[in-house]
Give the backbone structure.
Amino acid sequence: MTPITEVEGRRLALSNLEKVLYPATGFTKGEVLHYYATTADVLLPHLRDRPVSFLRYPDGPDGEVFFTKNVPPGTPDWVTTAEVPRSEGPARMVLVQDLASLMWAANLVTEFHTPQWVIGAPGEADRLVFDLDPGAPAGIVECCEVALWLRERLAADGIEAYAKTSGSKGLHLLAAVRGSTSEQVSEYAKELAVEAEKAMPRLVVHRMTRSLRPGKVFVDWSQNAARKTTATPYTLRARPEPTVSAPVTWEEVEDCRSPDQLTFLAADLAPRIQAYGDLLAPLLDPDHAGPLP
């Protein structure tokens, strides 16, 4: 029988808790649920009011991995959903607004991906994002070099950037913005990606073309498009080990000399949160959101 757990007054059937999802480390589904429960205080504010796309891997990263954008079948009626505008017609998607909804979603075994806008204002971007994606043999060390350049360039325009690991092999840069559409933010981000390539031609590429990417960092500006999503801060990733998209300090970015310095597993996050709190909390403060130049 599947045990029934009560979370904030909601009854949840949490299943297969002993199932090993990450064979490389023996990390189980129960540990996935425990991770999300213990990071909820910092994770939920970054999910709230944003329609969630789930990248599901119910049999672990080596099994079937698939995206779910629409409300999954069997979603409890107490989970908040909203109609989301899409070019191909509106769709109904999940909003993870509270701990009970988070635990229900985590039970599906998922990465959380969110757009750069909130459901109340889908026409206005409130985030700027750069996904720094290295092409081997480049890695996160090279991403850090590019991130520091972009941080200075954004600061010159009065925009304060924050960094997190992708939880894979790259780095994400985030900033709070206001007063612009997703299209305008995309255009601005592309301009900066082109500038970065001109400033560091041996290190940076701004186009997705695979043949251009070996040994360089692809500065992906396209995730600012309204239809695109990025891995939410603190989400687990479907990788061989239970890596996390973890916020990092700029000191850590400056000091990075090897990939293991900026690789964080689920077990690393509780002490980090205790030491730093939510390093991305300023993104949630309207006073930190500035206009694009």
Remarks:
- Residues 125-228+246-263 form a domain with the Alpha-Beta Plaits fold (CATH 3.30.70.3300).
- The chain has two domains: 15-114, 125-228+246-263.
